[in-house]
Write a structure and sequence with these properties.
It holds the Pfam family DinB_2. This is DUF664 domain-containing protein. It comes from Hymenobacter ginkgonis. By secondary structure, this protein is mainly α. Helices cover about 55% and strands about 5% of the residues. The chain has a single domain, classed as Four Helix Bundle (Hemerythrin (Met), subunit A), CATH 1.20.120.450. Helix 4 packs antiparallel against helix 8. The longest helix is centred in the middle third of the chain and has 23 residues, at about 60-80.
């Protein structure tokens, strides 16, 4: 069941909308892990440091941003699922990215961390019952349910996968794009 309007901050609607109406967000999270790995695992170091415009994040920074956001959304979900009534603060994604040192790490190391975080996220949300999923709390100045946070995690990653494909990969030579590497030669 999709989160009802009013159970999340309006700006997160765009993420929730990226989870297809008929989709199970837990299945989407599992599928995204393989998809993200395919998109990033074969990048060269130079490609992993590409910025599609001045001041934009590199693919490594995008991945660490996804990790940071997933941990924060998961933490919020944990607190609210356990009926914690304390309001939780927001976070500044740009400050997090600027202080992540993502570009100093190997993509292999970042993907290992990504898979560990994703496995923990799927295990946590998969262990919640309907009552826990419908519990709510306040974060970043607004009310949000645990169910909405599950959809936000999945939609947020889908958003960044789309950005990688639309803004980063067109800057790479055609045979070097992650999507091209995983297509049969006749399709390339």
């Amino acid at each position: 069941m999709r989160p009802a309007p009013g159970t999340y901050l309006p700006y997160t609607q765009a993420y929730i909308d990226l989870v297809p109406a008929e989709a199970d967000p837990l299945v989407q999270l599992r599928q995204q892990a393989a998809e993200m790995h395919r998109e990033l695992a074969d990048l060269t170091e130079a490609q992993a440091l590409l910025r599609y415009a001045p001041g934009k994040w590199t693919p490594k920074e995008v991945l660490v941003h996804i990790l940071d956001a997933e941990r924060i959304f998961g933490y919020r979900a944990l607190r609210f699922a356990r009926a914690d009534a304390q309001e939780l603060p927001g976070f500044d994604e740009n400050e997090f990215a600027a202080n992540s040192e993502a570009n100093d790490r190997s993509m292999s190391e970042l993907l290992t961390e990504y898979h560990a975080v994703r496995a923990a996220t799927v295990a946590f949300f998969g262990g919640l019952n309907a009552e826990q999923l419908d519990r709510a709390g306040r974060a970043n100045g607004g009310a949000v349910t645990v169910r909405a946070l599950l959809y936000i995690v999945a939609g947020h990653e889908q958003h960044h996968l789309r950005i990688l494909r639309e803004r980063y990969w067109p800057l790479l030579p055609p045979a070097a794009t992650p999507s091209a590497q995983h297509q049969p030669a006749a399709v390339r």
